[in-house]
TrEMBL record:
Protein name: Gylcosyl hydrolase 115 C-terminal domain-containing protein
Pfam families: GH115_C (PF17829), Glyco_hydro_115 (PF15979)
InterPro entries linked to this entry: GH115 (IPR031924), GH115_C (IPR041437), GH115_sf (IPR042301), Hex-like_dom2 (IPR029018)
Signal peptide (residue range): 1-27
Organism: Alteromonas lipolytica
UniProt-listed PROSITE patterns: PROKAR_LIPOPROTEIN
MF term (GO), any: hydrolase activity
Length: 990
């Protein structure tokens, strides 16, 4: 009914608004709510139940947006939406015949819909939505909600839609495309610490678990996401899906297909349903009768529903199949017998050949080994390829497998429990990486079934939506930039247009930071077995102090998200907290907790007074995680999400508060710490080199730091001055206090004023700028004073007058190494068959390069590389010559299929072509390190025959690899987590 408040609006307002409706309306506009009327949403009771469900959802959405509640029939005599399934709805049959609607394009369609606007009666315009099948009709109805700006997360993330009145939508009456992927869905997994507890104690206490009420909300979300498949929760903490009879009926009412994971063959939850005491061991070699009966019963129970049956078997829960000690051939044969038995059960109990029943084979972990060793899978079964649990697909269909009748699919994780370390807490999977991997799968023919392991659903909202959007319309996501355009659109829709651009920037940075190391990995320890926190490989001594740079980045990001949150309208506060605030603040403080722990240990080992301050900041970060999570559970949305978020899944060491280390303080009131040295300058006795900063290179222009640290409980003033005017200091004086006991000063040069060193065509040799003769350096000194204490610090600038570098567009040696960001190549070659392209938003440097298309053939011979393979070239300049280590950092993807590799080829100048392979085997230590760092290092030795200009050429050997960074180590590289920052010739760029 129309709101009385609106009825009483003034005549002028009414006239103005109606004029606006008239002006903006067009042939394809359809008014859902106005001052004159509100639409009816009409479906036939004879249609599938999901159609009624979707109609109810649309009515609710129209009411939420416009304030007016739609009718459920057309008795009001106003505008109406009629929706129905082509083969099932008498209403649609009548309308298509009456108005001669052309629905021929829908007859063989899969989940498609078409709109028809009938306006023969201007007082009663009608929108007819015809679906090719029951889900097509539902998607057609809910597409209207999308047009109104209603978020799929309106319930699951408390997104309040923007009010609109009058309310109208633009209608395109063309036939919708079929989805790019036939079956698209999620796997609820590792639900023990959030979703299951929330359902049992808060949302569905009458069941005391995840039951039909909870699953109804999940199914509603799936419909809004245009998904159609669910693998239900299956841990022992949760009642198995089929042990609550209503669950399967609710799934069918919402039109959702049920499947099960790699460890749950034939829709059977082995983890929760297999009773050893009654059934014996769960193994097919010695107990085939009981196992077969178990499978048979489930097939009979589910026969009348829409299902996808997982074939083959593993052990109980996530473990290998139990078999007696036998060879690979015997194990493969046994698994083939399992599959044959399962298919016979389908034929016998479903009344049709197994070849017509949707089935999937998931070669996960050891099952992939069986498949690679000859396991034969019937042609009509879908091969579902899996990632390695950390976002890298282990294998895809080769050209022969791409011809299989059953096609292929993928099972992908954004949440995982297992070695080398869990990441169950937050969404830390880089969306561009996910896009790249699943797009690669689609291009290799994996288009039948995609499943995303979303853990507890929250907080995986936007990666889930992105995954489903790509699966729905892959063409819309043909380029990497489409990923962040989509995320920006999500932010604009859910959190306000004015915040979208800044949120996009914040989350670009967020995903780059968590790509370098997920928050859950920050304790540098492992699981299975669980180990204690280890030593970080981040350096605090070199390259601007990696620990502090990471901490500063997270502090800045937290500040940005808090400032935005403070100004968010009240109606958006809850959604903003769930979708933006909590992920950034929680991940940021997890990083800060451990980063300040490492700062505390480092400072304490040096006897510095700031050790206590870092311990305090560590505790503050931990307290903010606890406080913010408590708000999520107990105050957010008036307690709606109580128990859904854990601050410590599995109580792993990374989530605990680490111990603080007390410093044995030095006598000096102030410690002076200089970049490049592990001990404060004024703590060193008789070390002639310890009072100089690392040389500043005029071509890379990287500043050096000095830390000034208070060692007492009394404030201390300090000053820093230079004997040369061309020295630039970020601060020349200050006061240290117990509340702020450390200040970092950055030392650089005024490059317009710094004198030139010797004019030369060829600089001297030597792996250390410190050893370069004085004529090539410009020196100065800094005078530090604090109270009665004083100290001198030397500054050297390498600034030779090298004319050859005045217009050199490339990378320059700095302190014995050259560091190259792969996306900043000088030249490239390619063709329609393959070429290198930049993917932005992933990688350590913010972008990677990849040879595309991923279907390009491998090029394996050195001669063929030179003549056929796409390449990129990098120009670099060295001041040294001799042997060097050439290291390439790549994103640790796997070979696309058996017979392909993970290879790349390189050559320096006219030297030999070197082939590098960064493939790993199984769960090797190298693989573990790679996935913890999202980085694989391939290394070879090369010869730099002379100082001066050089060229590095990189060729594609196997398509699909992603090159991130390159390091040429001439002997100067120090230990660090990542490569030193790019040494691009900054002198040219300024």
């Amino acid at each position: 009914m129309m709101n009385q408040r609106v009825r009483r609006a003034g005549v002028a307002l009414l006239t103005g608004l109606m004029a606006m409706v008239s002006a903006t309306a067009c042939a394809k506009s359809f008014v859902l709510a106005s001052f004159d009327n509100v639409v009816g949403v009409v479906v036939s009771p004879d249609d599938a139940k999901v159609v009624s469900k979707a109609a109810d959802m649309l009515r609710s959405d129209i009411a939420a947006v416009s304030g007016n509640t739609p009718y459920a029939d057309d008795s009001h005599g106003g505008p109406a939406i009629y929706a129905g399934t082509l083969s099932q709805s008498p209403l649609i049959k009548q309308l298509t015949e009456q108005y001669q609607l052309d629905v021929s394009g829908l007859r063989e369609g899969w989940e498609q819909y078409q709109y028809f606007v009938i306006d023969d009666n201007k007082a009663k315009p009608r929108l007819v939505i015809v679906g090719s099948d029951r889900r097509g009709t539902a998607y057609g109805l809910l597409a209207i909600s999308r047009k109104m700006g209603v978020s799929p997360w309106e319930w699951w993330a408390d997104v309040t839609p923007e009010k609109q009145f009058p309310l109208q939508v633009d209608i395109n009456d063309t036939l919708s495309s079929a989805p790019s992927v036939k079956y698209r869905g999620i796997f609820i997994n590792d639900e023990d610490w959030g979703l299951q507890i929330w359902a049992a104690k808060n949302y569905e206490p009458e069941v005391g678990d995840m039951g039909p009420k909870t699953y109804a909300r999940v199914f509603e979300l799936l419909l809004r996401l245009r998904a159609n498949l669910l693998w239900p929760a299956m841990h022992k903490s949760t009642i198995p899906f089929y042990q609550i009879p209503e669950n399967k009926q609710v799934a069918d009412d919402y039109g959702i297909v049920i499947g099960t994971s790699h460890a749950e063959p034939m829709l059977s939850n082995i983890n929760g349903e297999w009773d050893k005491d009654k059934m014996g061991q769960y193994r097919f070699d010695t107990n085939a009768g009981a196992v077969t009966d178990f499978f048979r019963n489930r097939v009979k129970e589910t026969a009348s529903f829409e299902n996808i049956y997982t074939v083959a078997m593993r052990g109980e829960h996530d473990s290998p199949m139990i078999v007696k000690d036998s060879g690979m051939d015997e194990q493969v044969e046994l698994l083939e017998n399992v599959i044959n038995t399962q298919r016979q059960l389908l034929t016998d109990n479903l009344g049709k050949p197994a070849s017509t029943v949707p089935q999937v084979f998931v070669p996960y972990k050891e099952v992939l080994t069986y498949y690679q060793n000859g396991l034969e899978v019937p042609d009509d079964i879908t091969l579902m390829w899996t990632d390695d649990n950390y976002g890298y697909l282990r294998q895809l269909s080769n050209p022969q497998e791409q011809q299989r009748a059953g096609g292929a699919g993928i099972y992908y994780h954004t949440s995982y429990w297992g070695r080398p370390h869990d990441y169950l807490w937050l969404n830390s999977t880089n969306p561009v990486l996910m896009w790249e991997e699943i797009t690669k799968a689609w291009e290799q023919g994996a288009r039948e079934q995609w499943v995303l392991n979303v853990g507890d659903i929250k907080p995986h909202e936007y990666n889930t939506e992105l995954f489903m959007d790509i699966a729905w319309n892959r063409k819309k996501f043909s380029e990497d930039e489409a990923v962040f355009r989509a995320i920006s659109d999500y932010f604009a829709r859910d959190l306000g247009e004015k915040n979208a651009a800044q949120l996009n920037d914040i989350f670009r940075t967020y995903y780059q930071l968590v790509f370098k190391r997920r928050p859950e990995f920050m304790a540098w320890n492992h699981v299975e077995p669980v180990t204690l926190p280890g030593e970080t490989t981040l350096t605090q001594t070199h390259y601007g102090d990696e620990v502090s740079r990471w901490a500063d980045a997270w502090e800045d990001l937290i500040s940005q998200i808090k400032a935005l949150h403070a100004n968010v309208p009240e109606a958006q506060k809850d959604a903003f907290f769930e979708l933006a605030y909590y992920p950034v603040v929680a991940a940021g403080n997890m990083n800060l907790k451990w980063l300040y722990y490492y700062k505390n240990r480092y400072a304490a080992a040096q006897g510095r007074g700031d050790a206590k301050w870092y311990a305090k900041k560590m505790r503050q970060a931990y307290a903010e995680i606890i406080r913010t999570t408590d708000y999520f559970n107990n105050e957010l949305a008036s307690g709606k999400w109580q128990h859904v978020m854990s601050a410590s899944p599995r109580e792993l060491p990374v989530f605990q508060l680490p111990p603080a280390t007390a410093a044995n303080l030095r006598d000096e009131a102030v410690s002076l710490v200089v970049e490049g040295f592990d001990v404060p300058l004024n703590h060193i006795i008789n070390n002639s080199h310890a009072d100089s900063l690392p040389v500043i290179n005029a071509f890379t222009r990287k500043p050096r730091f000095i830390d000034i640290v208070l060692n007492s409980d009394k404030q201390q003033s300090w000053s820093l001055s230079s004997d040369e005017g061309w020295i630039k200091l970020s601060a020349s004086s200050g006061t240290l206090t117990p509340e702020n006991p450390v200040q970092r000063v950055w030392v650089s040069a005024d490059w317009d004023a710094v004198p030139k060193g010797i004019d030369s065509k060829e600089p001297p040799l030597g792996h250390d700028f410190q050893l370069i003769p004085p004529s090539f350096k410009v020196t100065a000194s800094l005078e530090f004073t604090a109270g009665k204490a004083s100290h001198q610090i030397g500054v050297s600038v390498f600034n030779p007058d090298l004319h050859v570098l005045s217009d050199f567009d490339g990378f320059v040696e700095d302190l014995g190494y050259v560091s190259i960001a792969a996306e900043r190549f000088q030249r490239s070659s390619g063709s329609d068959a393959a070429t290198w392209k930049v993917l932005s938003g992933v990688g350590y440097s913010g972008g990677v390069i990849q040879p595309l298309p991923v279907t390009a053939e491998s090029v394996e011979a050195a001669d063929d590389l030179v003549s056929q393979s796409p390449s990129v070239e990098y120009d670099f300049y060295t001041f040294n010559r001799g042997s060097a280590s050439l290291q390439l950092a790549l994103v640790p993807t796997h070979a696309q299929y058996k017979g392909r590799g993970s290879r790349i080829a390189v050559r320096v100048d006219n030297g030999p072509v070197e082939f590098l392979d960064f493939a790993t085997q199984g769960r090797s230590e190298t693989w573990k390190n790679n996935v913890l760092m999202n980085r694989a290092i391939a290394e070879t030795q090369t010869e730099i025959t002379s100082s001066g200009k050089h060229t590095l050429k990189v060729w594609m050997v196997d398509s699909g690899v992603m090159l991130d960074e390159i390091l040429i180590d001439l002997g100067g590289r120090k230990q660090s987590y990542g490569f030193p920052a790019s040494t691009y010739n900054e002198a040219l760029s300024r």
